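Changelog excerpt

This revision adds worked examples to the README so contributors can see how folded entries look when concatenated. The first example is reproduced verbatim below.
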Amino acid sequence: MKFNKWTIGLAAVGVVSLASAAKADEKLTAVQTALSSTTISGYVDTAAHWNPGTGTGAAFYGYGGAAKADGFNLNVVQLSIGKPLDESEWASGYKVDLWFGPDANTLATQSSGVGADLAIKQAYVALRTPVGNGIDWKIGVFDTIIGYESSESPNNPNYTRSYGYTIEPTTHTGLLGTYRVCEEFSVSAGVANTFGPAINGRANPPQAESYKTYMASVALTAPQSWGWAAGSTAYAGVINGFNAGSTANGLGNQTSWYAGATLATPVTGLKVGAAFDYLDSHGTAAFNGAFYPNGNDIWVVGLYASYQATEKLSLHARGELANSQSQARTLLNGGSPAEDSQVWAFTGTVQYDLWQNVISRLEIRWDHGDETKFFSGSTGGFTQRNSILVAANIIYKF
């Protein structure tokens, strides 16, 4: 074993022994080997919001609301550390996503509740077992398996979140297995403590100690032989369990159904998509301490279109309808219930990647409440039927 001159000099005067130096070097080499595949990445997400005029208010979709209206915002800083699974039969790895900033409080994974602008978004151990083509496992805290949009804004076609995203669970604490049957077809199934998002949350009380949340999904990908449609994807999933009331949808047993697809088109650079979310509250939804016997069942339909015009310029559009058979306002804001309510939302986004590693987006969004006033006005309260947002979003990815 070779030693540097500094180590040999210390050994010569009796400060260290070459044997201990060799052992220390062996330990360091083991640590270096363990960390050799670890990656560090993340992003800084900032935005400026303008709600023009006096006749519009702030809408309450995921990570939106009055707190971000008419001003500059730090949304979130994400720091990701992990080691992905390699191709070996008994591969292992891990993933940790940390959130810092106001959106960390909205995510609300803290087991003791919201606070401190800090949250663990994901933290799981990844394992593979060589059964068939190999089963990939996640154990710990992981992102939900359903939804067209991600909690990570850089991965979404639009800056603001949809109402479909808003009614979906975000994270779970549990065990998830994924099996790829072939290149075109994969399935996932898992069990978790609750709908989430609180880490280590429990369904008891009021449920029994053994009550858990169960989830499953399937994913299809069009093969290369499909020509211009190659790479198109279709996805469906269901999650059933107990919502402990950490989200806007209230306390109780709930089932989330999701189906979505992204389709390539014969037009180069153009993709279209569709998503359907249904939240079934099983007649147990609660809001402000009051139970509603009809629950808070909500469905959302979303349509998407994205066009990559040039290497740097892309255009994205989204239209959606959120409908509730009863008490839609318990989802969209803190107002009193309104029967059979619905909200329309239309979003247009221009993205131009001028700087390296930077996502720069300009977005215009219009939300409209059909039956009642859903949106918070400048004087407070829910006084507006329309919400108009002009937003600039700058994200640096590292």
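The second example, added in the same revision:
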Amino acid sequence: MSHNLERAGHHVLCSVPWRDVQPLFQEHRQRLFWNNASYLSVEQKRRRQCNSSLPKERYELAVLHHQLTDPDTNDLIPCRVLFVFSSVDQKVCQKERQRAVAKIRAGLEQITRSVARGHFSWHDPVRIQRRVVKLLGKRGAARYFRWELVPLSAQEQAALPPPQRGCRRPTHRFLFHYDAAAAQADADDDGYSALLTTAPRIHSADTLFTQFKQQCYVEQGHHQWKTPLAVRPLFLKSPERVEALVALLQIALTAYHLLQRLYRQAVPDNAPLAEKRLTTESILRVFRVCPLVKEATALGCVVHPVQLTPRQNHILVRLNFSTPAQTLARRLPRYLRE
């Protein structure tokens, strides 16, 4: 993707899978120069402004000048790899690893006791293997453990105490080993990630990282482009019609977020936090059930509005919008009752 954009005259700023840059990071790790990033989340800024006792997390950046090879032309594309260290991500990774290791270890120890006891449900090696595979699952911590079933000799089986009720004399011994060195090697990379950019060097790594982290300010709106259309499928056979549809979607998206902005501006300062953060999606969900009743009379078709719920009426008043009854009265001729 990066070489295609570069060929088209555009620059790239994107995240990179850690496994793709981990060898590069290990090779240059001792020579990287780290600086604190100026970007902070809203919560971290608040903690620093009020001198909060809560943890003050940080980001650190290191830049490595690198080159990419265009697979089509074999041209070299100069780029920069931005290595990012997040103190909060480091804590999350460590906590998740400890939790996963503890759960796997407890499960393997339980299997060890069950196999040693000779319980009838743990006598079949195939069943034991199935239980172990289910316990390990797809957890990343599973690669720290090695296990095996060791057959017991006749002398070892004879030396065991008599089996308890519901059990039989075990034929195997279950053993597992925890690779602490492998876990520590992964722990050394906790909190690290990488970005790739082909932007000119006049754009500093700190500026690019801030722009990357501020994607969330626009992604909330962009996700509306990715959801299924709430209309019938459209089949467009010319680029001009596709461009027209995109323009209409842009107008609709602007109106969509303008509704949210108008509502939040009308919310008083002493309103609950949930009310101050109400989104257009939540507003429209309130009006999901707001029907009109169509009635056939001797004088023709008559449309009646259904009474609004208190929540619906509250939102319309705050937005200074007309109710369905007011809109119908303004647009339709008055119904003359007999």
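Reviewer comment on example two: Residues 261 and 279 are 9 Å apart (CA to CA). Residues 93-187 form one domain.
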